């Protein structure tokens, strides 16, 4: 009984930590993309449209990987 | 943003466990149950609840099981008796019951009901057809002239999707993909917005819906793929022979993960947005005080405005990545210096 509660708690803690790490990594990645995009637009304001599209694609790919992590954490938390 | 909600999910689950042990179901407000109830599909369309009154729209239930055949009845039958016609509903799952009223797990029940999400899907299809037939008629009528009415709003968006997404990502063969790209874009955008309305169904946050969208994208990529695409996957140019053992499975897995990430991205973004808004509103009921209301309504309003933006961004990203996958499928050997697919 106590053992199963402990195990559930550990699983939930794992899910929480996993989600936190995923958020941290995605935040770092998207932050870097954002900062480089702003820098490039400041250098080449005329190319801002192209830079924005490239930025969105890169951000979407990073977010996709982060969301894989989140879904695994959700499965742990809900199962 | 979408990631922050998972922590609250863990807390929610914990609440449920504690509650089951103490058995106080009526008095304790359970935020997890409230949130899951709002984002999940349901056999009735729940609008609001007061102390004495549940405002719900009953929806048709269509079930088939081997013994009883097809039966069609209103979902309000369940709320009166709990069981009806040999069927019982428990946590939005319909079971067959035996004569004593117990769940009979041996009978397989096929549930084809018009649920909240199905109804909302039909609703949005009718809305999209109505709007875009009007726009298309306007285009035919005002050919060569300035657009009028609702056409003035949608025509710039259509040409944006064509110029910025289809032509840039697919290249000269963009034309045959335009109907699909526009349908996907407007379907996702409209349903994201409809989901944000009070009482709206969370359709694009339903993983079955996003799965079907991703499967359609995958099948269309395969149908339209040329020899160059397959050569790139099966016999990647310029790779030394020992490396091919590693590259080949990675490329084949890569084919599957592209639509898989489309599915997860849309589902997780929209669901997480709904969970965050509901968590802020749930704080009022959790603390049982009105003084928290300005804070949670303020944050809820801010998140709702952010979600209006996310609704558009997710529709755009889904269409953009779809166009990229189509582009890599129809790409010719001539411009392999622009490697869009990776």
TrEMBL record, chain A:
Which segments constitute the V-ATPase proteolipid subunit C-like domain?
Answer: 14-76
Q: How does it sit in the membrane?
A: Multi-pass membrane protein
Q: Which CDD domains match?
A: ATP-synt_Fo_c (cd18121)
Residues the record annotates as the site (Reversibly protonated during proton transport) are 63
UniProt main location, coarse: membrane
Q: Which UniProt keywords apply?
A: ATP synthesis, Cell inner membrane, Cell membrane, CF(0), Hydrogen ion transport, Hydrolase, Ion transport, Lipid-binding, Membrane, Transmembrane, Transmembrane helix, Transport
Q: Which GO terms describe its cellular component?
A: plasma membrane; proton-transporting ATP synthase complex; proton-transporting two-sector ATPase complex, proton-transporting domain
- The secretion signal range is none
Q: Which residues cross the membrane?
A: 12-33, 54-78
Q: What GO MF terms are annotated?
A: hydrolase activity; lipid binding; proton-transporting ATP synthase activity, rotational mechanism
Where is the protein found, in the record's own terms? Cell inner membrane; Membrane
Cited function: F(1)F(0) ATP synthase produces ATP from ADP in the presence of a proton or sodium gradient. F-type ATPases consist of two structural domains, F(1) containing the extramembraneous catalytic core and F(0) containing the membrane proton channel, linked together by a central stalk and a peripheral stalk. During catalysis, ATP synthesis in the catalytic domain of F(1) is coupled via a rotary mechanism of the central stalk subunits to proton translocation. Key component of the F(0) channel; it plays a direct role in translocation across the membrane. A homomeric c-ring of between 10-14 subunits forms the central stalk rotor element with the F(1) delta and epsilon subunits.
Q: Which family does it belong to?
A: Belongs to the ATPase C chain family.
Which proteins does it associate with, and in what oligomeric form?
F-type ATPases have 2 components, F(1) - the catalytic core - and F(0) - the membrane proton channel. F(1) has five subunits: alpha(3), beta(3), gamma(1), delta(1), epsilon(1). F(0) has three main subunits: a(1), b(2) and c(10-14). The alpha and beta chains form an alternating ring which encloses part of the gamma chain. F(1) is attached to F(0) by a central stalk formed by the gamma and epsilon chains, while a peripheral stalk is formed by the delta and b chains.
Q: What is this protein called?
A: ATP synthase subunit c
Organism this protein belongs to: Cytophaga hutchinsonii (strain ATCC 33406 / DSM 1761 / CIP 103989 / NBRC 15051 / NCIMB 9469 / D465)
